[in-house]
């Protein structure tokens, strides 16, 4: 995409008309800050990716839900293997569903 002088001037005029001459410096400052933050975060992510050692995640067979929901102490005592964020989120959702099901069954027993 080649932008010549007439196109750039037209874009600048449109910006001045849309935002006003008083708001343009604030807008440019905000864009500059956002770009600096974005660059810093992407460089951190790249550094983190370089530091990480390749890990092999093996699929585990699905287990039947336990009869009784685990207590928070049991959950905290269980060491968590190194998993991807998506896999951890999926496991947490499954644990929450099991806990909800256990709480619902206990509430049904009380009634």
Automatic annotation (TrEMBL):
Keyword hit for Transport: yes
Positions with biased composition (Basic and acidic residues): 87-97
A GO molecular-function annotation: protein transmembrane transporter activity
Entry GO terms, CC: TAT protein transport complex
Domain of life: Bacteria
Biased composition (Low complexity): 70-86, 98-111
Membrane topology listed for this record: Single-pass membrane protein
Subcellular location: Cell membrane
Family matches, as Pfam families: TatA_B_E
The UniProt record lists the keyword Oxidoreductase: no
Major localization class: membrane
GO biological process, one term: protein transport by the Tat complex
Alphabetized UniProt keyword annotations: Cell membrane, Membrane, Protein transport, Translocation, Transmembrane, Transmembrane helix, Transport
Region named Disordered: 43-111
UniProt family annotation: Belongs to the TatA/E family.
PANTHER family to which the protein is assigned, alphabetical: SEC-INDEPENDENT PROTEIN TRANSLOCASE PROTEIN TATA
Role: Part of the twin-arginine translocation (Tat) system that transports large folded proteins containing a characteristic twin-arginine motif in their signal peptide across membranes. TatA could form the protein-conducting channel of the Tat system.
Subunit structure: The Tat system comprises two distinct complexes: a TatABC complex, containing multiple copies of TatA, TatB and TatC subunits, and a separate TatA complex, containing only TatA subunits. Substrates initially bind to the TatABC complex, which probably triggers association of the separate TatA complex to form the active translocon.
Protein name per the record: Sec-independent protein translocase protein TatA
Designated gene of the protein: tatA
């Amino acid at each position: 995409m080649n932008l010549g002088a007439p196109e750039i001037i037209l874009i600048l005029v449109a910006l001045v008309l849309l935002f006003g001459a008083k708001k343009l410096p604030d807008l440019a400052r905000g864009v500059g800050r956002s770009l600096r933050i974005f660059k810093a975060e992407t460089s951190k992510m790249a550094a983190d990716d370089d530091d990480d050692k390749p890990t092999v995640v093996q699929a585990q067979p699905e287990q039947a839900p336990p009869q009784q929901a685990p207590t928070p102490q049991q959950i905290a005592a269980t060491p968590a293997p190194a998993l991807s964020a998506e896999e951890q989120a999926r496991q947490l959702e499954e644990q929450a569903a099991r806990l909800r099901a256990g709480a619902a069954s206990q509430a049904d027993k009380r009634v």
